[in-house]
Amino acid sequence: MIACLSIPGFELKAALRRQPSLATRPAALAPEAGGEPLVGPVTAAAAAAGVVPRMRLGEALATCPQLVLVDPDPAAAELAWEEIVRALEDAGFSVEPAALGVAYFETRGVERLYGGLEPALKRALAAAGAQWDARIGAAGRRFAALAAASVAQAGQLLVVREDEVDQFLAPLPLTLLPLERQRYDELEALGVRKLGQLAGLPGGAVAERLGPDGRRAWSLARGGSTARVRGRRPPAELVEALEFPEAVGNELTLRRALGAVVETALARPERRDRFVRKVALGARLVSTGSGGGGSWRRTLTLREPTADADRIRVALAPRLAELPAPVLELRIELVELTEPNGRQLELLAAGAEDRSRLSEGLRQVRASTGSGSVCNVVEVAPWSRIPETRALFVPRDD
Amino acid sequence: MVADSRDARALRTAGRLNEPRPARVEAGFDGTPLQVNHVAVAVLREEWRVLDRWWTEEPVSRRYFEVVLETGENTVVFRDGGAGGWFTQRGA
Q1: CATH for A19-72?
Q2: Which residue, of A105, A193, A355, A396, has the greatest Cβ tally within 10 A?
């Protein structure tokens, strides 16, 4: 069975951990700086007052004037989510996180450990923690598990057997499908409002009308693929932070601070002999007045794994310009490291080659493999956008 | 008899560097690769398009992806928009 653990409104719940009193009041996650002015997840009190997620900010405030906007705290949310995923992994589940608040895992390997499917799922719910109102859906297919988790109540387990999948999915709304807003409207205009109605249409006709997205949605409405869950590799835990005595907004100062934290992180003994593939830059921001200061985080996958502080600094520095507010703390996380042999080194170090030995070696290669086996690379159109037209290899028989 | 001034052997054997090689790629609904030669894609690093030689009878239209496979290998694949089919390519 594939299980899906879902925590609706996870980012809001994570942000509210710093202001728990707001949980019972009408509150919504504020729009991200620079993004569309749409509110994020809302509390139950806000929902009761008529505010729904992705509502325009102006409309939300007009609907519920007491609405409190909570600053997003992406770093806290990621940290809290990482804690939950690790708790699940500690309980023996191989977890594939899909998004903040949604994770899949296989139960087959742990059912015997806990004495059956239901006890295993209960263990997973307990690992996630009661304060998050998590729920779990389980089914033979991934989408059916997600759908089951979406309709389950907080703290509830909902298991859908393989022979019940069609019956279970049929009355559910189309909004469970990953489609664009206009696609829902299009389907609604055609009188298709439930998953069962979409699943009943011929696949070819759906693909012709709605394109590849529609075809995928149709396939999901019929239960989706049986793709297995691939558990993640736990990320490296190498974090270095620098706290400023007062908020810093000057980019030059931030660049210097960045250089210092990068060097400190790279000097950690756990990093020894390994190269950095993915790195995250985070910051705790100064309070903007309404709530506590939010946070900011950007991840970056390096083009080539490196342990060179300058290269990492140069790659990260432009991100500092995206900071929306002065910074109280700057942190760097080495999210993904290669194995010690994760980078290919040059066969012959530059400047160290012995030309005569090289010529002799080439002569021997030619002697054993025949004429034409040793070539020179000749650039003919290095400016070309088509890689294979940039250079030729020409046999070298000298 | 006057010999041909061109080196016939060199012309015959010179080849293109970084010639595309056919690959087995399984793509998602949005066209991004999920598997390359039966190895799952771990990270999609970059995507770009190359449209060239549109003024000739053999225009080039490719959608490139730079991916990291689960084995840790870094590879570049593209889908040929003209003839169809997937290829891996070095030096892109």
Answers
A1: 3.40.1170.60
A2: A105
